[in-house]
Queue: 4 jobs
Job 1
Amino acid sequence: MDQRIINLFDEYTHKPLKRDDFFKRLTQLTGSTAAAMAVLPLLEVNYAHASTVKPNDERLTIENITYEGDGTQMKGYLARPAAPGNYPAVVVIHENRGINPHIEDVTRRVALAGFIALAPDALSPFGGTPTDAEQIRTYFGQLDAKKNLNNFVKAFDYLKSRKDCTGKTGCVGFCWGGAMANQLAVNVPSLNAAVAYYGRQADAADVPKIKAKLMLHYGALDERVNAGIPVYEEALKKAGIKYELYVYEGAQHAFNNDSAPTRYNEAVAKLAWERTIALFKKELGS
């Protein structure tokens, strides 16, 4: 697919670009309304592909939980191994689409690897993630940045309060959640490991606060996010932070999202995921 079309969709999903304006520009790029309509399903997510680990998998226990956030009750999707025992915990941070079948599936994947996996819903202050995509975009624009960060920080307090948690914690985030993973590395001193997939980097001035081991995954074609890599990496090196950074050739933004057909890259996603789980096993135990 024409890279200009993928870049336009990336702009639409990350900037305040109205759907009518997006579709008008898409029509210009494709040449006709009919062509734009044909391309649109290839760009938008299809959650029919988002169930690599079934919700009723007998190896897992699934819960819908709540915990105290910053002036709000936070909702979360939690999965853990069904076998009795204590496990380290991983916070899974969604993209700018909130909690959806794909993120629930990713949460189950983490749990299947031997962790308590919790995906908080950032839109809990609005009652949770709605089904309407435009409403989701509106709510994300209305989030209070400081309270939102605190809501995710408090997820670790909740996890450590559970009797089945060893106290070792990590996080993994994607896109919007990748940026949050970098912020949590700065703001949660007890965090053992943080993995950011194609997420905006933390401010260089905050890097010395990081105590966690970092793993950073980027798609080489993701020019918007990748622009921040050099300054971030320089700050990480200067501060002596332990990190691994991977830029995957030929990969788009959101290459891990198997419900986004034009951007998903199976080979890259598999390699990045293997590296992610290996990091968690090394830094958290399992």
Job 2
Amino acid sequence: MPNTSPSPSGRRAELLAAGAAAVTVVLWASAFVSIRSAGDAYSPGALALGRLLAGALTLGVICLLRREGVPPRSAWRGIAISGLLWFGFYMVALNWGEQQVDAGTAALVVNTGPILIALLGARLLGDPMPPRLLAGMAVSFAGAVTVGLSMSGEGGSSVLGVVLCLLAAVAYAGGVVAQKPALGSASPLQVTTFGCLVGAVLCLPFAGQLVQEAGDAPASATLNMLYLGVFPTALAFTTWAYALSRTTASRMGATTYAAPALVVLMSWLFLGEVPGLLTLVGGVLCLAGVAVSRSRSRAAARGTAPGAVPEPRPEQAGDSAR
């Protein structure tokens, strides 16, 4: 029987994609802590615009240094849609929604996003839905629900807030699915940079609020806004695009279920919010579900090299998120 184990180069590509996904999840989890701090001084639109401007500036400088240039015409449709939905609308809706509902309710609603990504990916991109992916997403979603219920406060939710968080989840899913085809002809850095620019242009009507609120905001809130732009936006969205270009949208969406567990840990470390037993159980379920969804069957493990054919055999690309 011929040896069909992954080649060293294929294994390296798999590890790089997994590392990129891990960086993304950690930084996105840290964003929830920073949003809570900056959101006390900045309105939703102003915070989104400040974050996007900081991210676009950072990415623009990197693009100039690397001489990336303008993406090809074939990538612009996906870049424009992801920029409008994910970088623009999603950030404003999420910031606004989190001011209307408690953190637990926001987490519950927004975590429908990976499920929507899987459904849209199967419908529009032809992503396969292997049993391990479905089982892992089910376990992780149960964990996210557990974390959300344990964090929900009494009387802290509104219909408007729930609707805004749901719209944010839909925009997130649509942006990811639109971004995937663009990565077939443009680099992850190009897709992220120009998507961020599109989102910033969409948020320009909030420029007046940003200038006014920046004059009154404490330095800590402004620094948190800049952190959101440089790390959870510029860096994390680029590593996300890098990993997404090497696997399916459904599998990448499932990976983000590790975020609730990390949010619990970071809130404990940086905000002094000691999690209860139910919260810890939910976090463990989230991580266990991600591990299942990113694992490979024995047949897949004997397949060809990871990353060699990212579509339609996603089990061979980026299968280890940690």
Job 3
Amino acid sequence: MLIRKPADHLPSDITSESVYFNRRAFMLGAAGLLLSAETLAGLNAKKSPLSQLAANDKPNSLKDITSYNNFYEFGTDKSDPAQNAGSLKTRPWSVLVDGEVAKPRRFAIEDLLKFPLEERVYRLRCVEGWSMVIPWVGFPLASLLKQMNPTSRAKYVSFETLQRPSEMPGQRTSVLEWPYREGLRIDEAMHPLTILAVGLYGNVLPNQNGAPIRLVVPWKYGFKSIKSIVRIRLQETMPATSWNLANAHEYGFYSNVNPEVDHPRWSQASERRIGEFFKRKTLPFNGYAEQVAGLYRGMDLRKNY
């Protein structure tokens, strides 16, 4: 994992993918920066003390990240999102934050882009057994939720994806119950590793990767990181989630990466990093155990999968 925070000035150009690999001081975003529909501006930043956690993880190529996707709103094949997501209109866009909060509010995407942005290089582990390393741009979800003044009854956070079948052809099928829904416990949502991503690799977030704003929770299987969010609701009860509704036996609410708990139809002990031939061992909590294992102290992670 790599976390970098913003500095005080902007360079004039976007950093290309090739330059990115050679200049690890790259950073994106700044407080008050408004992202256009075409590009993000970049800036230099100091390394976080956590940056060494990803020292041996080279990010996947932009092509890998944008052409091999699960986003069932655009189809079930890995190539479908890249082929079909161009129809999605991401402006205007807003996100409603409500529920057990003192200050419910609807945020225009331009308001959310004013949060100080950080580069986060995270591992992504899919429940299907493949993985990537992705340089996201975003901000901690906690920084948004704290502004809402959650009440004492806010125990969980639910998320909802846009439902617009005219632009999301996969929603014209019954492969899942629409709109797509996900959820976290409040302490998971408030954890500093949990972010709302608005870009990757120096550009605005591509539609197939969840534009214009998505969740990223790096210690959980990828389907927990819901895309194209339009609603965030704080609530007292555990929210229903799409894959749990579809098949609770295979997809639990927590869905933490755990190599010791197999999927009913395949092992989770190893994974194939996209772009590599040989498999590698899967790490507990996707390699973030030191940071997040304490959230589950005393829990049976085989039962609470």
Job 4
Amino acid sequence: MYNNPLVTIICLCYNHEKFVLQSLLSALNQDYAFIELIIVDDFSTDNSREVIKNWIAAYPEIQFIENETNLGSTKSFNKALKLAKGEYIIDLACDDILLPNCVSLQLKTFEKNRFENLGVVYGNAELINEKGDSYFYFFPVDESKKTIEKRETGDIYLSVISGGNSICSVSSMVKKSVFDDLQGYDENLAYEDLDLWIRASRKYDFDYIDEILIKKRITTTSLGTHFHIKNDSRSRKINYSTYLIIKKAIQLNRTKQEHKAILKRIHFEMFLNFKTSNYKLLSKYILLEIKQRFRILFKG
């Protein structure tokens, strides 16, 4: 590997007692040797911290941060990011599993550098349940496990803001310089990935690796399962963060085409909040759409 760049894998743990060792071992046992691990336990209420402490006793070089209160993923990640020495960063939840060639494939893609300003590479993920059984893929695949629908690459901002180009965040590698430029995750949000992809795609190119890079575990407590739950406090917090992300994205838009594209995302969120009976947030989206249509008509 050219120059053997250091890769920092930030491992975020919250009540992952059953899965954390498998996840950490997957990060450690990559076919690429130059890896720094930073583990953050976000004040787990199960036995996660003890499991991690017992494991890292054999690896004194691994940094372990124990939060004294539950800070959430954005703040926990940013704490670790300040300590990271790697040129590239992976954000790994401690119930997910990196495949052995994940890091090497990501680095090779960065080395090819077919875009002027490549900042993020990502691939596909195999979805598994709590028992570790596979049941689907993040992006549907054919018999050869190749993605059926072609992914957009390069400047993907327009596609990201419209909601049409979802990113498999768990399979991504991001240049440390990109995180530094964007000042990490927005700590005012309940989740991080959509906001990061919007802000990053405004300034940097993205590339896609048509390989399965990671096994993503879906459980009843996974963030993705809470977007659609009716009358749920976590759902309301998550969906309000999406509203804040969309408002931020509107300020990043430069063209009438981009202002029109984000209406698609607004309409999707309006329907979602209607289904989840979040009428207060729905009313905010209605006002946001009116302002956006005014912006399109008179400001462009």
